[in-house]
Amino acid sequence: MTYPHRVFDRVVNVVLALFVLLFTWPLMLLAVVLIKLEDGLRAPVLYSQKRVGFNERLFDIHKFRSMSVDAEAHGAKWASKGDPRVTRVGKFLRKYRIDELPQLWNVLRGDMCFVGPRPERPQFCHSLEKDIPYYRHRLLVKPGLTGWAQLKYPYGSSVKDAQEKLQYDLFYIKHRSFLLDVAILVRTSEIILFGRGQ
Predict the structure, then answer these.
(1) How many CB atoms lie within 10 A of CB 34?
(2) pTM of the full predicted structure?
């Protein structure tokens, strides 16, 4: 991507993040209230995790907490569909993707874009790089809030799933364009509006 394209891409992502933030702050406030009502005033609302981004740079991703406080007391685990660690409020937040809204801060910081491969945790990323050829190619672009793989493949919770999703990520990287990003964002919006999230 040339320098003018990078600047254009950055400006579009920042403007879009501010626009979405302007309209979703009431939902973010609702998420805070619901989490506190379910788990108590002292319960953490947000959680942060290290993720691997563009050119293998580590950054902290932020989400509204949708799992129990002690969800990873015994170490990192793959998230799965119907995960018993997800709270009642967490199921609602995930269904409408409200849990992802704090990542607007990651977009504003430049850690992420709206569209791209989902960023993976370092401990999983290093393992997958050994098991899956070309997995490192996902790091040639910035990770995204949504992406081609998320639209085309169901929730992944294994090495086999990661290998399948990689095919869609590589397709996106090869054919990346403004129009493809718009198409992905439109489709993602439909999923959110009709509550078809995980």
Answers:
(1) 19
(2) 0.85
